[in-house]
Prior knowledge:
By secondary structure, this protein is α+β, with helices and mostly antiparallel strands.
Amino acid sequence: MRTGPRRLALVAVAGAVAAAAGCTEFSYISKTYVGLQPQVVTIGCNDPYEVYDQRRERKVLIVSNNLREIAGCGLSGQDPALTRRRRFSEAAATYLKETARETCTIVGETVFTDLQTEFVYSCAEPVEKPGTKVPRLPGRY
């Protein structure tokens, strides 16, 4: 296997692209969800997930944590990766239901990391006007 300057340059470029992708995701999440107070939705056996709700854009960011991903009670001894999509989708759907958006449906999903997934949803009702009182779930205390 050759390890000349071309190969080293290729490795450097690949590393920079990978790092930029992570920075891009972080930048997007920061811009989209900055300043929003997290709400907490529970699923299954009271497994809590933080939810950042961008109502005007009809997007929610579901956030787990490392401990839950290792020892969560909803895992039933399975590898967390095998149930992650189902758990995050269930958290998003439950959140919409508990905040009076039962008619809304999830239409898109973007997995940023093992701990962060964004869901885009669609509703028949128009987006609420700014200042409208909307149902909120409690946050972390």
